[in-house]
Amino acid sequence: MSENEARIDAGAVEKPANWLNLPVEVAASILAVTTVLIALGPLHLPPWAVFIGWAGTFAMGGPTRENLKRIWPVMPLGSFAAFLIVLGFQQAAQVFTGAAYVIAEMVILFVLNGAMIAVSRVSSVFTFVPGMFFGFASFFATFFGSFGPDPKNPFLALLAAIFMNALGPAYAWLNVKLAAPHGK
Known about the structure:
Elements: H1 3-9, H2 24-39, H3 47-59, H4 65-95, H5 98-122, H6 129-144, H7 154-178
Helix pairs in contact: 2-3, 2-7, 3-6, 3-7, 4-5, 4-6, 4-7, 6-7
């Protein structure tokens, strides 16, 4: 037995702190079922926004301190850009019809999508561009899926998407804390 192995056996080296050491599929499923309760009325919050943030956190390598600092700020930025796009489309619908309206939508989308991504060039906080699209997609799914406390209110859809996206990385962190390390 090597010296390092002896130290581990003697308890000198601390194992990662997992609270319950559940099988990962059990820990993940316990967390997943809680989204059913979160989605109930009257708030009617979008449960998939949790899963988007949760899966996105693991896609970037898991809920490390560095990854959490990268994903949490960009998802609301993406949701906010999508919110502005919806407001722009609503305003354009008051002015344009037919092909002119379609062109207006394309210009609004091009400008605001481009501006969202360009933020990553000027701010070290907003560098994880894929995370922007997690928030972007979550807002559109919330608003156009008629979720949130008032299904036709873009501002409430924005708040609902941001809140639920923020839970995703927290669920990823909890998943790691509740589960036994993979392979155990």
